[in-house]
Structure formats: C-alpha cells, structure tokens
Amino acid sequence: MDTRATGSSEFQTAAVPELAPAQVTRWSACLADAQCEHDYRVHRFPSDFRRAWLLTVLAAAAGVLNVLVELNAYAHGLSPLAALVPPVAGVCLPLLALVIVLHVQTPRMLEGLMVVCIAVGTVTRFVMLTLHPDLGAMWPTMMVAIVLVAYLYLPVRLTVSVVLAGVISIAGPIWWAMASGGALPADHLYRALVALMLSNALGFTAANGLHRSLRTQFAQSLVLQQLLSTDALTGIANRRRFDAVLEREWRRCARASAPLSLLMIDVDHFKAYNDHWGHQQGDECLKLVARLLLNSAGRPGDLVARYGGEEFVCLLPDIGPAGARSVAMRLTAALARANIPHPHSPSSLWLTMSIGVATTSDFAGGPGTLIAFADKLLYAAKNSGRDQIAEGALAGGELAARAA
C-alpha cells in the first residue's frame, strides 16, 4: 500500500529561465560574463590570427621600402651608414614576429605578441625620424598613424588599445621634443598634441563601437543557438541538441574505448493525466519532471533532453551499466519524492515513469543502434507493468538485458 500523503494537483514548478544575450560593458567594450568573453576571444582567434599575420607582412614590406630609400640616400651621400640600421631592423623584426605568429595558439599569446610588435615598431620608427632631423614634419603623421593602428587594427582588447595609444601619445611628443634639441617650435608641438587628442577620441569612439558591435552579435548568436537547441516548454535540451551531442559523444567514446549509456524515459499513463487535469496542468507536470530529471542527473557532462511528448532521454558518457542503473534509480526516487497525484493511473496513485537503460561499448553500428536499443528496453519496462527499469548492455554484438 502506498503510504504517501495525498498532495494537491496544483504544484509549483521551477520557472523556465528566459534566454537573454550577455551584456556588453559600456566603456571597456567587453562581455560582462567572463566565460562568454573568453568564448568570444576563442571564436575570434582565427580572424585575429589572419589579421596579425597580415600586419606583420605589411610591416616587413614597409621595412623593405625604407631600406631601399636609405640605400639610395646613402649612395648619394645624403645619409650616414648608421641610418640603415633601423630600416633593416624594420624588416628583420616583422619577419621574426611573423614566424612567432605562425606558432601562436591562444588569444592571450597573440595579444601579448601584438603589444610587443607595436612597441618595437614604434621605437624603430621614432629612431628613424631621429636620425633624419630634416623629416621633423613627419613626427605628427607618424604618431597619429600608430595611434589609429593601435585602436583599429591590432587584434587586442579595447583596454589594451587605450593603454598603448596613451603611452604613444605621451612618449611620442616627449621624444620629438628631445630629438629636436630644444629647437621644436611651440606651435608645431601644439598642433601635434591637438592631432593626437583628436585621433585618440576618434579612434576610441570607432574602436568602442566596433568591439561592442562584434560582441553583441556574438552574444545574440549564442542565444539563437540556445533557442534552437532548447525545448520551448520545459527549458531543457531538445531533440535537435540531443542528436548533436549523441553524435559527438559516440565518436569520442569510440576513440577512447569508453562506455556510453542512454536512459530512455517515459512518464507512465500521461494521456490519462492530461485527460483528468487538463493540458495546462499537463504542461506544468512535464516542466516539473524535466526539472527533477535535470537536478538529479549529477555530472555536468550528462545531458537531459526532451525526446518528444512525455518522453525524455538522459545521455551518460563514460558510464557503464552499474552507474547508469544508479542514475535511473535516482531519477525514479526524485519523482517519487515529488508526490504528484495521478488518480486515474491504472498502476499507481502517483505519477511514475518507466526507464530503459542501454549501455554500449560497441560503436560499430552508429548512434541509432543505441537509441533503438534503449527504446526496446523502455517498452520492455512498460510491458512489465510500468514504474520499472529495464537494463541492457550491448558489447561485441552480444546483447544482455533484464528488467528491474
């Protein structure tokens, strides 16, 4: 005899969380969620890698042109031999950076390398201008160009761009004034400072908008992916996501020679429950069952999904028959503790579920074989009187199954 106290059919379920894109900070233009920001940088890494590769190639090409100019000037006695050193360095250093870029594998390493590259490139250009006092008018143009590159082209975070541009905007005029030996006209310096202020303002505004736009698009794409892989009623994974994860875990477990278990779950006599309480209450019931399954699954790597109607699945990678049975018993115990009345059930006064527990270590037939096997076990559990767990193991073409 069932000794559980009679409960009300009006039960409260955990609300299905609303999906919303991660927020982007206003000034630093980063995703507020640290994990989301990390995922964004990983997502952008191939594009940033190509941009860094192109930047180093362009820097090397510019260095080659400078070498040709200095060689021509030296040949005509217009430039000392020492003036050839910065242009040669301007070729060798970008080529070295290019070699390093080709071996960079993380966004953090790429960002660090870009900071070093812009610092070395800036010093090289300033040394070249120092060795040519007659090119003093080039200082403002060079400083503004480097600032804009730091903001708009370097594959780094906005905060790093701001720091780089700030250092260049302070160090550049000081270097220029020292290189001119005190002969720099005040109006020239004033105009250069105004140009730097404007380039920083425009560069920051443009870079901030670009960074925010790209991150907003990424956050929205994540929400779209979640919507496409989430069951609209229960808020857990839908069949689309289940199929994708099963395919991935099937290949991974096959490579690792690890077991893979699947629980096929059916709410017993759910049509009778719907007919008695109504479809709205039936939807609330499915939401509660989904939450119970999700909270009882255990490991973060386990996947609970709605398979269709009142059927759910639970995918358990790296778990053998004993562990899968333990999870199945935990799920049935969680539903039993919920005390959901089902007075029109032929087998119980309370809502119950039947579970087919399939485990495989034979990955020759494809993921569909595991689904078919679990479905067969589920029907065995239902035919045994429902509120049952039917287990089976598929290994090396040999099938062993039993109901409990």
Give structural attributes.
single chain; alpha+beta; elongated; 6-stranded mixed beta sheet; 404 residues
What secondary-structure arrangement, pairings included, does this model have?
Elements lengths: L33 H42 L9 H17 L5 H24 L7 H15 L5 H22 L6 H44 L9 H18 L3 E8 L2 H8 L1 H18 L6 E6 L2 E7 L3 H18 L14 E8 L6 H17 L5 E7 L2 E6 L1
Parallel strand pairs: 4-5
Antiparallel strand pairs: 1-3, 1-4, 2-3, 5-6
Helix pairs in contact: 1-2, 1-3, 2-3, 3-4, 3-5, 4-5, 4-6, 5-6, 8-9, 9-10
The amount of beta strand, in percent, is 5-15%
Report the radius of gyration as a whole number of Å.
33 Å
Low-confidence region ranges: 1-10, 12-16, 397-404
**Global structural class:** alpha+beta
Oligomer: single chain
- Count of discrete alpha- or pi-helical segments spanning 4 or more residues: 11
Task: Work out the helicity level.
Answer: 55-70%
Q: What is the helix/strand order?
A: HHHHHHHEHHEEHEHEE
Say how many strands there are.
Answer: 6
3D shape = elongated
**Biggest sheet features:** 6 strands, mixed
> Cα distance, first to last residue?
19 Å
Mean pLDDT: 87
The strand order across the widest sheet is 2-3-1-4-5-6
Kindly describe this structure:
The protein has 404 residues and is α+β, with helices and mostly antiparallel strands. The chain is built from eleven helices and six strands. It has a six-stranded mixed sheet, with helices on both faces. The radius of gyration is 33 Å and the shape is elongated. The two termini are 19 Å apart.
Quick structural overview:
By secondary structure, the chain is an alpha+beta fold.
